[in-house]
TrEMBL record:
The keyword Hydrolase applies. The keyword Hydrolase applies. It comes from Gaoshiqia sediminis. This is Glycoside hydrolase family 15 protein. Residues 8-132 form the Trehalase-like N-terminal domain. The lineage of its organism: Bacteria, Pseudomonadati, Bacteroidota, Bacteroidia, Marinilabiliales. GO terms for molecular function: hydrolase activity, hydrolyzing O-glycosyl compounds.
Amino acid sequence: MKNLNYGIIGNCRSAALISETGSIEWMCLPQFDSSSVFAKILDDNVGGSFEVVPTFLEQIKQYYIPRTNILVTRFICKDGIFEIHDFMPRYQTESGGYYLPPDVVRYFNHIEGEPELVVKYNPRLEYARFSTHNIIEDCYIKSTTEKGAYDSLYLYSGFNLQSILDERPLKLTEDNFCLVSYNQKLLPQDVRREKLKLERTKVYWLNWAERTTSFKKYEDAIVRSALTLKMLSFDKSGAILAALTTSLPETVGEERNWDYRFCWIRDASMVVKIMTSLGHFRMARHYLNFIIDILPDKDEKMQIMYGIRGEKKLTEQELTHLSGYENSAPVRIGNAAYKQKQNDIYGILLDVIFQHFEIYSVSLEHSEELWTITRNIIKVVETNWKKPDRGIWEIRNENKHFTFSKVLCWVAVDRAVKIATLLKRDLYIKPWSKLRDTIKEDIHQYAWSDSRQSFTQAYGSNDLDASVLLMESYGFISANDQRFVDTVLAIQKDLEHNGLMYRYKNKDDFGTPKSAFTICSFWLTNSLYKIGRKKEALEKFHALLKYSNHLGLYSEDLDFETKRMLGNFPQAYSHLALIETAITISNGELTEEEEIKEYIY
């Protein structure tokens, strides 16, 4: 049984997953959504990997250099000790831009002895559809496809290239390197140059982490999650990925396997809001520029998701030649959900736009474009809020009047009223306020179930849904409102199992969900803390922190019984929820009086 014991390295152009044994097992070049060059995570036999295997290994340790995205794998062997410092270069240039090539540098740091090792370099280009041919040319190994679409990859190294291809043992007696690049290099590559890239990249991440708002508790977890979210942002456009991978299953052996290498408006907007609260304003401005670029016309229909360069068509297909993670087929690329209608996206996006009008007032760059987008979104909400949709969980075969979607339509109009107030656009305030109140009244009337004593998943339903927990976070209802308190406790009773949360338990188009959705467990923890169950929330939060992998990273799902991670990885949703919950708890204090009250409760 596998677990997702991987580290992620990246440079906001692409990223790679490296196993706890130092094997690169997922990487797409030159960009996040390109075809894979290493995909062992999706097929042990044909996917391709880049492994380093010491001959006399005794122990492996793995960690990030603190407050950076440089991953260190330390090999302790009978004949010596060495480390591999894995990273993708990212640092500022003299011109003020950023150097972020489609490269992975594996810097071998010699510590003692003369450890013997084998470099197993096995790229499989273009999702391993066909075999890949390797040949030594000049000072590099060139890998090319033999059939299908042409692609190529280059490996530079201070090790003997023929020994790498033959997988012959090598002795490490001093620092060395391997550099994987999508492009042929114009300058000579040597240890000194790779060491310089390492140090410059380290400085970049240390400076970035230093700009992150500090908190008195959970600082390490917050910073690691923030660094991970930064790596899931695409520098060229401002888009933010839901996750790095495709087709890692929600449940092993089932078909809930999706490609998450795209920008969901909902997920990305949530990430941007939390990153702004941490002081990373450039990331937010970059994302809002992305929104402006994908909505250039006033009648442009907003999709729930886009490609990372703003692509609107994300055709889904299956790669039948790959067996899938632990034989969980199918492996999918593309995502048909882009065609869905989800009314919650409008509120989440306007929440971010309002946040930035608050911070920058009307001096925000592109403020007129954002005001136009705001007005157009309200037109859409006015027309669509009464209509059913597919909801936050992207139910593929059924439209419903989902409560979360209705609440976020209310959020859209509420934030639009606040934006209009900030901008002194008095003409819009009165009609929008009336619409806001109408939506709120409708939700209270039709989403509440007297029999369940809870807001439910959808109008007229008695099924419960973890997304409803967010109605307090978005300001729809206060934490001390009895209806919200009762909803939190009802959802906990119905959806919690072995300390983890279902999204919902009612059957969908793929049957009944069988794994815990990680973000929902954080949502419950956050909600319990806010309604005064602080001690219980703390216990749950500390348990959740233990369910990350050895590097503090989270996937989309957790197995209820074993607590192993499942689903796409690392998951932006999970990390933003961790940060939000950590901030809530860090900003609060559990007093002796509160402990006594909770005990009595």
